[in-house]
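Researcher: Here's my situation. A collaborator sent me these components and asked whether they could plausibly form a single complex. I don't have experimental data yet, so a predicted model of the whole assembly would be a useful starting point for our discussion.
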Amino acid sequence: MAGRTPRTPLRRVRAPRPPRRIGHTMAYLDHAATTPMLPEAVEAMTAQLTAVGNASALHAAGRRARRTVEEAREALAESLGARPSEVVFTSGGTEADNLAVKGLYWQRRDADPARTRVLASPVEHHAVLDAVDWLAEHEGATVEYLPVDGHGRVHPEALREAIERNPDDVALATVMWANNEIGTIMPIAALASVAREFDVPLHSDAVQAFGQTEVGFADSGLAAMTVSGHKIGGPYGIGALLLGREYTPVPVLHGGGQERHVRSGTLDTPAIAAFAVAGRIAAERREEYAREIGSLRDELVRAVRAAVPDVILGGDPVDRLPANAHFTFPGCEGDSLLLLLDAQGIECSTGSACTAGVAQPSHVLLATGTDPDLARGTLRFTFGHTSTKADVDAVAEAIGPAVARARTAGLS
Amino acid sequence: MTQTSQRPLRVLAAMSGGVDSAVAAARAAEAGHDVTGVHLALSANPQSFRTGARGCCTIEDSRDARRAADVIGIPFYVWDLAERFREDVVDDFIAEYEAGRTPNPCLRCNEKIKFAALLDKALALGFDAVCTGHYATVITREDGSRELHRAEDMAKDQSYVLGVLDERQLAHAMFPLGDTLTTKDEIRAEAERRGLAVAKKPDSHDICFIADGDTQGFLASRLGTAEGDIVDESGTKVGTHEGAFGFTIGQRKGLRIGHPAADGKPRYVLDISPVNNTVTVGPVEALDVTSLTAIRPRWCGSAPAGPGVYTAQLRAHGGETEVTAALEGDELTVTFSEPVRGVAPGQAIVLYDGTRVVGSATISATSRTAARVA
């Protein structure tokens, strides 16, 4: 092993700020976007950065890298209740989603040209949603969006009904494990059981769920599952598709075929090593972490409700990610709130995607039947391993006046 | 007292993605103000990249603005004002041309978008001022009221397009580029020094919402084409056109008149009549305007009490001319000391007292030496 780098005391990762902000409380509450790397992951990564060796090479340096990669694969498999051979490393969640959705579609359609129907929840991340839409536009897929309830949940009966309409033409189904905007957890095991009944492969994007709720791959009965490094305290640019061994999705990236011949590209040994460390910690600390972060989140919800009595809590009140709080503030623009809170050092998100920097009403909220005007007034606060009570206090103090001011600016 | 020496303000800097507004925001931040950058998304379907030197509404421009804000070290947001822009600027632009007038959408945008929709939202959110990269000077008088003046550098002066601002709008305006004698090269050098990547970006020209610069094509696509007559002053038909809206008074090129005038001299558009879809052409002398009336006056302060002698500017890059102006109700009557050419209804006339902007109005009718043309 290369020389160990001294442990970096890594509390917060943030860009330099203009001096005017000094004195304000800093509260980073956007961990669902990305969370600081865990010191243990930084250590694992930096230890590898100076070591040479392509994990596909046969010489000693290659063997050393290969060993690191394979040990990481085994560790990650263990953290996710999967077999090592089921771990396909990718460049991140987006690539894993694309590989699952497009690759499985092509595999299934190639085996039987009748299978062109794709069943998807309408609340998926854009990495799934846009991949599915692309299949419809370019590959002859028929996309069917499964109905969701007011909390954004797909019910197993809804999946059953959709498949039963014609079990022979379904290519795949894809339903995220937990929603990145509103935090609702889906009944994945029950959905997977329905899918298996009809031999339909079910993919689930578990990027937000990993580390917050149990995501055992084998127990879930899923065909494929997406996880990502930087959402759990690992590095950016690394993720994995957990892939049942009977599946050989058609590759999205062609090349050396390094990962089970379904994914090509030189393996990123330092990132993979760090991802495995972060994954191990996420799995080991999950229950305790979920409890602690959940109580912080509950405090935040109470504080926001006290300050803004007519606030609407998004997502399922019980079956939800412990680190997620999603609010709708009637009569406000989420953008205005974001600006006002940002100016006070509180960093959160409106939760919805941008087009050219312009916030669009969230497709998740629209799918749950929320009024489009109301859907513009959302904020998402997400906690992580560096969150403290001080973060909650900062929001508790700022949210009331910010909402009052944003309401005067209105929905212009 | 200059605006940059005031107490620290909460400033919203409108950032187009160009070099001027980036340097303006940087100067405001350097002066100690608490600056937040905003890029206005004005097009419902923005193009990905700039084509040539036009526009400020592409995604690339938005990125350039964000990049500049990040270097300056200020928060940055994109605000979607596309709907307001379409209603107040683009639709108005089309309607004005349809009515045979020649609008200036930049003035309209300053009046209705930057210093109305944007300013109102900024004030509601707790900002004190809106900052832009215009070249103009704001002077605060002893009593706290404010005056708009031409930029120190007359060659760069943009006070004309700000002549629509009233006292309230002016009270919340900040133009950090106007109060120093700076050439464009120096602004670019300053941007370079500040590490702003937009330092070498070409200036934008023309109308931002007509990406290819083809105003006639844009109008034709909105208003359709309708063949009509081109006539001379005597009413004799000398040619045809595909829509009266596509012409501007004083225009010489693109008339496509087959045979030359009797005197062999070039002919110019004298009048546009949308009612009977007729364009009247004639010699350059017939363009001489001796007086005009203008409506919708807006004053940078109190309205002038009686008739007075001012200098007037009639185009964004036009020169000054001496006038006598008198206000009657909401109608301004302006008499030129020397006849001027190329004055079209729809254009704005901005009145100055020395370097101070007195106010502006929209030209409704012009009087020529011979006859009054509406």
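Model: Some features of this prediction you could bring to your collaborator: Chain B has a mean pLDDT of 87. The first helix of chain B runs from residue 19 to 30.
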